[in-house]
Design goal:
Strand 4 (45-50), helix 2 (61-75) and strand 5 form a beta-alpha-beta unit. This protein has two domains: 28-235, 2-enoyl-CoA Hydratase, Chain A, domain 1; 239-286, Orthogonal Bundle (Lyase 2-enoyl-coa Hydratase, Chain  A, domain 2). It is globular and about 60 Å long. The longest helix has 19 residues, at 107-125. Residues 1-14 have low confidence and may be disordered. It starts with a strand and ends in a 10-residue tail after the last helix. Helix 2 packs parallel to helix 4 (107-125) and helix 10 (239-252) runs antiparallel to helix 11 (257-271). It is built from twelve helices and twelve strands. It has 295 residues and is an alpha/beta fold. Belongs to the enoyl-CoA hydratase/isomerase family. Keywords: Lyase. This is Enoyl-CoA hydratase domain-containing protein 2, mitochondrial.
């Protein structure tokens, strides 16, 4: 069940919530996931926080179920323009699979759980608005797969990232073997997966796995701060146009470029009758900032 709690009840979970305490009135606390929408000038930005310190945000039954609940909340909220996915556990983004749970499962239970985990990440990938992963610490195995499901990734330079499954007798099963070779060259993706290599945030930026690598600060929230800056850059733009652009890109990259042009045309035409498109043109003519309302 989803319960509402005041932000003061969770301020001690992470230093970056000192910022959120002045920008958020209420929080959706969904088990080990803390979800809230910012207010004021940041209205339209949603923050999706993993908060399972005991398990280092390992992907077990409870966390995955909570993520699916939050995914559903976000998907239906037309007032959200951009989502930041981060961790409230210091030094950890997500430690991957909960192997203690996994070890107790029968083979068919493992297969079904991993299918559900993949579907959970696909839900994040398919959220209609732009998503940004802020990686402060360890993001290995399923943790990196989760970040790869987001549109944009920001990592602290000292973050640790890797698809380490082959070193544990597994393969990446929540989309890693498919998303990573689409983000970087397949040969490099193969090397990283075959070696179970863990790289830092700076190396991940050089390879193109993350968009930005930032020097960590004393509050251990440099990636979150950079993600918030990016979200604020996205926020002034027309919400429907953002959603159409994301859909056009996500669908088009799976096709030939000629078929992709048709996808682009489809979403362009969806956006044409919107009031926001009219507002964008009118504000340009009148030399003022547009006021988009998402319709």
């Amino acid at each position: 069940m989803i319960s509402r709690v005041k932000i003061n009840n969770i301020l001690k979970t992470a230093s970056n919530l000192r910022f959120l305490s002045t920008h958020t009135q209420e929080v959706e606390n969904v088990g080990p996931v803390v979800f809230h929408k910012l207010i004021g000038a940041d209205r339209g930005i949603a923050v999706y926080g993993l908060n399972s310190p005991k398990d280092k945000n390992a992907l077990g039954f409870e966390l995955v179920q909570s993520m699916r609940e939050v995914n559903a909340l976000i998907r239906e909220d037309t007032k959200i323009s951009v989502v930041i996915l981060h961790s409230l556990v210091r030094g950890i983004f997500c430690a991957g699979a909960n192997l203690k749970e996994r070890f107790k499962m029968a083979d068919d239970e493992v297969a079904n759980f991993v299918r559900g985990l993949r579907e959970t990440f696909i839900e994040i990938e398919d959220l209609p608005m732009p998503t940004i992963a802020a990686i402060e610490g360890v993001a290995v195995g399923g943790g990196l797969e989760l970040a790869l499901a987001c549109d944009i990734r920001v990592a602290a330079e000292n973050a640790k990232l890797g698809l380490v499954e082959t070193g544990r007798g597994l393969i990446p099963g929540a989309g890693g073997t498919q998303r990573l070779p689409r983000v970087i060259h397949p040969n490099i993706a193969k090397e990283l997966i075959f070696t179970s290599r863990i790289i830092n945030g700076k190396e991940a930026k050089e390879m193109g796995i993350v968009n930005h690598a930032v020097t960590q600060n004393e509050n251990n929230n440099a990636a979150f701060e950079k993600a918030l800056d990016l979200a604020r850059e996205i926020l002034p733009n027309a919400p429907i146009a953002l959603r159409c652009a994301k859909q056009a890109i996500n669908e088009g990259v799976q096709l030939s470029i000629k078929d992709g042009y048709e996808v682009e045309q489809k979403y362009y035409e969806i956006n044409v009758p919107t009031k926001d498109r009219q507002e964008g043109m009118l504000s340009f003519i009148e030399k003022r900032k547009p006021k988009y309302e998402g319709h």
